[in-house]
Design brief:
The structure is a single chain. With about 375 residues, the chain is of the alpha+beta class. The chain has 3 domains: about 90 residues, no CATH class; about 130 residues, no CATH class; about 130 residues, no CATH class. About 20% of the residues lie in helices and about 35% in strands. It has 7 helices and 22 strands. Strands 7-8-9-12-13 form a 5-stranded mixed beta sheet. A hairpin with a 5-residue loop joins strand 19 and strand 20. The protein is globular, with a radius of gyration of 25 Å.
Length: about 375
């Protein structure tokens, strides 16, 4: 895997080498596109690539590859190619929209109940293709890929996934039954090898989840149970009773007392919602409506006894309506009886967020 750096921390020799690669790589990329597609694109940017990570202190050295951003007839794309010497051997994303569209259309023809199809690895990563897409060779572009088939209020077991494995050489198939066609997110931040994608942040939107690979003895399956109260959603993987009630005055004071008071000093941070949750299960997901952020920034979702969401650990997925956190996981009990509150930073205190970011950069280092 390669990394693009902005030049900080590079030695003069590395900077000179990167510049040399970028000049040659730009020329190579133009010739590569001309030879492959028959047109001459305009170059909008060129970035040398660097190996990812290394020992501390890490002084990166360009690896010889460059990514050249291009444009032709209002279509933007990129080429990954060597800048070490003249060559027309590379890979590009020029046909990526057509390739993705063709794959999705094929799958929808196979499965009429499928509302949408996602290919997270291809869609969300810098994936480039060496071969020319002719319309007849779609299988050449999806080796080692992952499919997500999106249904709405349709049982996942109505889909016979084996023909899809037979048709395409894919690594995995995930079938998700959503509860609303307008919101069908997939959390692609990471994949858990045995069960697929992280469920925590998509549980408010789904009814069922199935994940299978060509090597699975049985598919991984989960049924999601959702309880709604006062605009919040409480999601579990077991069908249990959940009781939610507003905080009493005493409970509210108790919860505000465990919040980091030093963090609040000088800033307008307040608890805008709070509830008492009881459930016969050891953990559940609480989905807080992002509509609360019309008045500020959600800084923390704080349970009294267990794990809490913090804005510095934000993992909001695209097109989401909720901010999710887990309650009960670290309590050590097989039941939940906890208080939680949503703490909001007033819009007028935006400089606080900037200050926090500066503190984090100082703590972790900023290349």
């Amino acid at each position: 895997m390669s990394l693009i750096l902005a030049g900080c921390g590079l030695s003069p020799v590395s900077r000179a080498k990167a510049k040399k690669y970028e000049i040659q790589g730009r020329e190579n990329a133009v010739n590569y596109i001309k030879e492959k597609y028959g047109f001459i694109p305009s170059v909008t940017d060129t970035k040398a690539q660097y190996p990812e990570g290394g020992p501390v202190p890490y002084i990166p050295d360009p690896n010889g590859l460059v990514v050249v951003s291009m444009k032709y007839e209002d279509k933007e794309f990129a080429v990954e190619i060597s800048g070490e010497e003249k060559t027309t051997e590379g890979a590009d994303s020029y046909q990526k929209p057509e390739i993705l569209s063709s794959i999705k259309q094929d799958i929808k023809k196979m499965y009429p109940d499928v509302v949408d199809v996602s290919l997270p690895f291809i869609e969300h990563n810098g994936v480039y293709f060496e071969e020319l897409y002719t319309g007849e060779n779609i299988s050449d572009f999806i080796e080692q890929s992952d499919f997500v088939l999106k249904l709405c209020d349709t049982d996942v077991y109505t889909i016979d996934y084996q023909p899809l494995f037979d048709r395409f050489d894919c690594d995995s198939i995930c079938i998700i039954n959503y509860n609303n066609t307008e919101k069908m997110p997939v959390d692609t931040h990471y994949v858990i090898s045995s069960s697929g994608y992280d469920l925590d942040n998509i549980m408010p939107y789904i009814n069922q989840y199935l994940y299978v690979t060509p090597y699975s003895d049985e598919p991984y399956f989960e049924q999601v149970y959702t309880y709604e109260y006062d605009g919040f959603r409480y999601c579990t993987l077991e069908d249990v009773a959940i009781t939610v009630s507003p905080l009493t005055k005493k409970e509210k004071e108790k919860l505000e007392g465990v919040y980091d008071i030093s963090m609040k000093k000088g800033y307008d941070i307040r608890m805008v919602a709070g509830y008492h949750v009881k459930a016969d299960i050891d953990e559940l997901i609480v989905a807080v409506p992002l509509s609360y952020e019309q008045d500020g920034t959600i800084m923390e979702i704080k349970p009294l006894a267990t794990y809490s969401y913090d804005s510095d650990e934000s993992n909001i997925i695209n097109d989401s309506d909720y901010l999710c956190t887990q309650i009960g996981h670290d309590s050590g009990n097989d039941y939940i009886d906890d208080l939680f509150g949503v703490f909001l930073l007033n819009k007028e205190n935006d400089e606080f967020m900037n200050h926090r970011m500066e503190e984090l950069d100082a703590e972790h280092g900023n290349l």
